[in-house]
Design brief:
The protein has a six-stranded antiparallel barrel. Strand 10 and strand 11 form a beta hairpin. The chain is an alpha/beta fold. It has three domains: 132 residues, 3-Layer(aba) Sandwich (Rossmann fold); 57 residues, no CATH class; 72 residues, Beta Barrel (Elongation Factor Tu (Ef-tu), domain 3). The protein is globular, with a radius of gyration of 22 Å. The longest helix has 20 residues.
């Protein structure tokens, strides 16, 4: 059977392609060009992907999704930032590009499946394909995959589902893949190593305003509230203020003009036990009311109750920095039930 692998140049997708080839699949690799910026690392990534494809002995195709990425991911993220939300472009990229445009492209090549180097696991149970947490829980990426539907899950293979990162690198090294020790990519893909605020300024002009305490004391200035998010404590440039303790400041609220900050990390505005959501996306027919949920990737999921009729999730205990625009993703045991956008 033919499987098309998204080959990014990183070690994860490379080992995914290798394992599929060793398992007897007819493997075709595709390098996706999703961003047209000349400063983007895509050329280096492509060169790595080409070396890996040659080493494994598979064809490498290049497909340009930069127009689709700009309109369906980047522009949507910008629109959210402009109205004070904090978007998650990586989730949008999976939804609109990797498991939509890329999947459609793979099927046009008469492939039965697509595969990526994501750390997730798909388990078939009766007529449902369940998205579950993989063996390496520390690398679990189901948070970014919650928008996948049944029609996609039944066409997707995650070859790394039963491996940990150390095993992946060892397999790459044993098979003489040139990128076996290549550093993992982090951060938003279109920003890469660039400074986040400076990058966003190119698209959302600065609108300076005041940084104020709850008592409305002005203690600093900002360049635009779109550049900041709830719970943020770095990059505020308000340390060492006279008449205030030498302690971190946290953004507890913001509006179009002001950032409101506090030195109290336990501030009630930073710790909420309920949220409202929109754009609910369920991975299967499961709709449990008792769930565990998390509001950011690097967070342990917490016990909660979901009210599907009123679009509300209530946590058993308060959660830090629930942020509008981000995703809440929820689980029943190891099954990723789905997720939604926090509003």
């Amino acid at each position: 059977m033919k499987v098309v692998v998204g080959l990014s140049g990183g070690v994860d997708s490379s080992v995914a392609a290798l394992l599929l080839k060793q398992s007897g699949y007819d493997v075709v690799a595709v390098f996706m060009k999703n961003w047209s910026d000349n400063e983007c690392t895509s050329e280096d990534d492509y060169q790595e992907a080409a070396k890996v494809a040659a080493r494994i002995g598979i064809k490498l195709k290049v497909v340009d999704f930069s127009k689709e990425y700009y309109s369906k991911v980047f522009q949507v993220a910008l629109d959210d930032l402009k109205i004070g939300l904090t978007p998650n472009p990586d989730i949008l990229c999976n939804q609109e590009i990797k498991f939509a445009c890329f999947l459609d492209y793979a099927l046009s090549l008469d492939a039965q499946y697509v595969a990526t180097g994501h750390y997730g696991k798909i388990v078939k149970k009766s007529d449902d394909y369940l998205l579950t947490i993989p063996h390496d829980k520390s690398k679990d990426q189901t948070y970014f995959l919650y928008t996948l539907k049944q029609k996609q899950l039944k066409k997707v293979i995650f070859p790394l589902c039963d491996l940990n990162k150390e095993q992946v690198r060892k397999i790459a090294q044993d098979n003489r893949l040139s990128n076996f020790n290549r550093k993992d990519s982090t951060g938003i893909c279109f920003i890469g190593p660039k400074n986040y605020k400076n990058f966003i300024k190119q698209y959302i002009p600065p609108t300076p305003g005041d940084i104020v305490t709850e008592e409305n004391d002005i203690i600093g200035t900002h360049e635009g509230t779109s550049y900041y998010t709830i719970g943020q404590r770095k990059g505020l440039s308000i340390g060492g203020l006279k008449n205030y303790p030498e302690a971190p400041w946290y953004i507890i609220d913001k509006n179009d003009e002001q950032l409101i900050v506090s030195q109290n990390k336990q501030h009630p505005k930073l710790w909420l036990n309920e949220l409202n959501y929109t754009n609910l996306s369920l991975t299967s027919s499961m709709r449990p009311s008792k769930i565990s949920a998390k509001v950011r990737y690097q967070q342990k999921s917490m016990p909660a109750t979901i009210d599907y009729e009123n679009n509300k999730i209530t946590f058993d205990k308060p959660v830090f920095a629930i942020t509008k625009g981000q995703a809440v993703v929820f689980y029943e045991n190891d099954v990723c039930i789905g997720g939604a956008k926090i509003i």
